[in-house]
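Ex. 9. Protein: Helix-turn-helix domain-containing protein.
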Amino acid sequence: MDRAALADFLRRRREALQPEDVGLAPGPRRRAPGLKREEVASLAAMSTDYYTRLEQQRGPQPSEQMLASLARALRLTGGERDYLFQVAGRNAPTAVPAGTHVAPALLRVLDRLDDTPALILSNLGETLVQNRMAAALFGDRSGHTGLARSEIYRWFTDPTERLRYPEDDRDRQSRALVATLRAAYGSMGPQSRAGEFVRALRKASPEFVELWERHEVGRRFADHKTLVHPELGPIELDCQALFTEDQSQALLVLTAPPRSEGYEKLQLLRVLGHERFPSDLLPG
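Predicted structure tokens for Helix-turn-helix domain-containing protein:
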């Protein structure tokens, strides 16, 4: 581990970023360039003290998970991420598996979306990052681990995952998720993480087996969908997807036409994470 190189790289990358680059409000005039240490620490989900010690060449060797969080917080490119791993004394990933490193270009778009639900998914259905509105709509997905990080796996193994969709739309969603996994399986191969998902789901779900044998392939996101929120009820939304060039990640943005019922419910959703509504004030 090259402590001096690591500290200098972290400091320079931090100073090269502005608050608006990572979705933060500019705030008052700053005396020092770039982000504050506490801002980087918050973005990387670590303590300010831990991050400060890294910049001061006195911190412990970061884990691979911690380095991946720093790479995302600092909006590093693939090459910069590899360098970060190397100076920290860790082996840089030879290839970026889905869910390891969020595409900086998609993150820059997500950072500017704070008034509508938006999230970035891997090609295995893992939520890599979601904004506050998406967490309010879908629930906070950051606590899932292992195979359960994937919405595809949860859909076929956890009945509560389907409650966010109307009953008459669940068959379509099942087919769409299997087609998405089939596309990932085709590009990644049977010995990849996609293959691991397929083997696990074939054991866990007869429904998955039946759909898998249809050999439907594609990244499917309905242009218009209805999601069921536990307090606001059905919300009709338009869904747009922006993919990375290699199709390994997708940014999903959900919106509703102005003055529509869906739009009004999104406005309520903006404060739902901080306040609980009396039942007589909820729509429907």
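Check your answer against this statement. Strands lie at 118-122, 127-130, 224-229, 233-243, 249-255.
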